Each structure stands twice: as C-alpha cells, then as structure tokens.
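Changelog entry: the VWA domain-containing protein record was regenerated in this release. Current contents:
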Amino acid sequence: MSAPVSRSQELGGLAGHLDGFVRAVREAGIPVGISQAVDAAEILTVIDLLEREQLRHGLAAVLLQRGAQRPAYDVLFDLWWPLSDRPTATDDSGDPTDGGQDGEPQQRGPNPDDTALAKAMRDELFQLLLEGDEDEIGRFARRAVDRLGSGQPSPTGQSYFSYRVMRALSPDTLVAQLLAGLLAEGDRGGFNEQVARQTVRERVEAFKNAVETEVRRRTANEKGRERVAKNAVRPLADQIDFLRAQSTDLAELRRTVAPLARRLAVRLSARRKIGRQGRLDFRKTVRASLGTGGVPVVTHHRPRKVHKPELVVLCDVSGSVAGFSHFTLMLTQALREHFTGVRAFAFVDSTDEVTRFFRPGADVADAVTRIGREAQVVAFDGHSDYGTAFEVFADKYASAIGPKTSLLVLGDGRTNYRPAAVPLLASMVRRSRSAHWLNPEPRRQWGSGDSAADRYGEVIDMVECRNASQLADFITTL
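Regenerated structure tokens:
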C-alpha cells in the first residue's frame, strides 16, 4: 500500500502545476511579472478550488491586463485546469458516459458513422440548446466528441477531431428550429426575434467552443499540454504578423494601432532645442535691465511657437505585402489626426498620391478597395518596382519633402531584380527632417533573393516591423 500524500506534498504539487500554467501564459505573449505570479499563488488560498469558474476568473484578475488577452488565457486555462473526469450522466442503455481507464471516456455503443446515433444525438442537442443549460451542453459536448469525434487509432493513441462532430450534428442548421421554439406566434420580425437570434448564436457558439475544448483536452492527454498549447493559442493582436493577418484580425489590429500612432506622432514631432520659454527676446531683456543698473536680472523670452511637422508616408501596396499594406493604411489614417499635413503615397510599379482616400472617419477597407480601383499605382505589369516608384515620386512629388517633413517608407524592399534607385532614396532622405523605413520581413531575409533592403538600409534607418509589438519597440527607441 502506498504512503498517504501529506498536505505539504499536495500544496507543493499544486504550486508546481500553477508555475507551469504561469509559464505557459507568459510564453503565449501575455506579460506576467513575479508579483503577478505571487498574487496568483495567493488566489489559490482564498477561493474554493472545487469551483472551477471561480478559479478561472480569480487567476485572470491577477494575470491579465487587457481584455484582448482573455481568449488565449481561456484556452490555456482549459488545458491546465480541465473539467473533472468523474461520471456525470448515463446514456439510454444505463452505461456511464464517462469514467474510462485513466480518466478517459471509453468508446461504447454503435459505430460513430451510424446515422441513427448521429440523429439521436442531434435531437438531444436541439433540446439542450433550446433549454440553454451551459453545464449540460458542456457534458453533452464531451459525449459527442467521445461518440462522434474519434478518428482512426494510431500507434501514439486515439485521435479526436472537432470537425467530425460538427459534420455529424450540424448545429448551425438548427437555428431555424430553435428560433421557432423560442419565439411565440406574434414575436416574429420585432425586437424579440433579434434577442432570440442572438441567444441562439451564443448557445451554438458555446457548444462549438465546448467541443473544441474537449478535443484539445484529449489531445493534451495524448501529446502533452505544452505541445498542444503552442498550436492551440492564437497570437495576441500585437503579435500578429502583418503579412499573415486575416480579415478577422483587422478590427483588433486597428484598436492596437491607434494608440501607437499617437505615440509615433509625438516622437516624430519637431522638437525645437530652445527650452520651454522660447527664444530670448534681447530687446525686452535690455530694456528691463535699465531698472537694475544695466544688469539683466530678469530675462524675457518670446512665446514659443509649436509647429507640428508634415508627414509623408510612402507605402508598397503590391500583392506580396497585402496584409502589411492594410496595416500601413491604418497607420496613415491614425496619423492624420496628429499632424498638420499628412500626405500618403502608394506604389506598386508607379506612384500616386492617395491622401484623398483618407478623409476623417474613412473606412480603411474601403480606402484599400478604392486605391486598387482608382489610384494610378500600376503602370506596367503590377509587380513591385521600387526604382521606378521612386523615380515617379521624385518627378511628380519632389516638393512634398522639405526640411520640416518626416518621411516614413513602408514595404519589404523586394524589387523583382529591377533597379533599386538607391541614390534617389538617399536624396529624399537628405531633404527630409527625419526618415525611417519599416520592413515587415525578418531581418535575416534582408538582401536575400530580390531584396534590396540591405542596400536601402545604408541610406535610411530601416527597422524590422512584423507586428504591433515591434512597432511599439520602434516608437520607444525614436
């Protein structure tokens, strides 16, 4: 008989488990300091550990700083603090649905491909969604994964897939029936229907999330939590690669870029090295000194005039950097609020001014569409040609750059093996007050293949900027 586990051993094991969870949260890109980790340990001593949702919210309160971090946190929490594997229900035959060997539900009943089983479970899902009991929906999701989500066994163990469950049950096709069950005869077309539709969407989404969570739990039991966490957690908004950003990421990315644009505007603003009081007013100072025997005891200064500089944004909108161009145009739109004059220029193998598409309140997606349709950014074959783009800019818009102008170039610097026109860029940099180039490619790829980034970097400050986090670092170092 094994020796009983002492209280200190239990607490030590729990502390080690919490430490692994905190490390996983930190590796997901959520900053967690030592003080927050200590607070998380304190949480375990003041709440009921058997109340899983209390534990979830308590740890979230001390580990998270922004609401955008919550989805990644919830995925990790479900991996490190999974639902109990205790038997919770029985099927129609009286057999327990949970509680197999090593805590894993056993495969019982008909073949998962049996349409009768799928129909029976679909009817049960409809009833559960109609009632809206979250706990019951979660337990049903576990049984659905057990019965319908298994794939072919492999040498490494049993595999489970959420798409098999969704294909068998098709919860999205139950919306019309659920609406009919939730609405009375005279509620169609009004506010009650809107509320009912929202309720149905939330319940169906909750079921899908429960299935995803259960599949991740089973996969983690087979392959390990750490391995599953690396693939299951989506990058945070400030870590999304601009070149790979999806349409669903753009809204969160826009919220991230707006405050960064304000900080960038402050950093790029002209700073006159004349102190807070402005230039010395020599005449007034001498006149005042007559009352003190010619000694300028009190100095007088002219009022300081704060001049916001002009900003020229020159961005590549070719297909190879489509995701990055969305970011650059978001940045351009946000910067317009903080500069007296922002002029935006887009190019592929020719250059055109696109400032007119960024009126106050304009939608960035609409601006992108209009630039592609109306702007003269393609003159030949639609492939990036930085040399020609710089030549067109120098020929048509040379006056846009002056001693008060901050120049911001955004692009990957890939020229398709065409002339790079480095001297033209150098001339533009010399005429500007400051110049910076944000490149969405990793620094190790600069100069490889058709990239002229290494040569451009000799005449302009070129910065790797693949995500909003790196943009924030760039702003900090300006």
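The radius of gyration is 31 Å.
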